[in-house]
Amino acid sequence: MLSSQEQQWAGEPAPPAGEPALPTAPDASTPPAPRKPPFILYLEGDEYAEALRMLTLWVRHLLVPVYAREVSSTAPWCSRWWLHPEAIAQFYGLWLAWQELTGPNAGLSGPANWHRDHLGPVMNALRDPSGPFAGCKAGAHRAKEIPQVDPY
Predict the structure, then answer these.
(1) CA 91 – CA 46 distance, rounded (Å)
(2) Domain residue limits at 1
(3) 5, 17, 76, 135: least surrounded by Cβ within 10 Å?
(4) How many domains does one find in the chain?
């Protein structure tokens, strides 16, 4: 059972003073089936390939034509962005948010929230002069040099 404080943290209203806390689930002894996280870098094999294929369609046919700005030294781009794991992860998160915030149940402010909370921060991070595309030039991909990490 959750305490009153734990229920508040979980977003549940606290019971009135003197009343017992509500149980968390009808059968707390049976754990829920594990869900795969919606993070593309956790996927493998065919599942990863299909997720990346769908993502590349969205990036190529919606994101880049509408939202990509001209390439410059202050806003680099890599035409082979899928070779940058950071770009894959960032674009995938952006795509998931786009699906949630522009879908039929998004509400009227969903698209505005997507632009404000997701699009700008992701594009600014990826196109930053020191971001993942920093070493890439128009039509030329250069893998990012990964910093060394000493063993613990």
Answers:
(1) 19
(2) 1-33
(3) 17
(4) 2
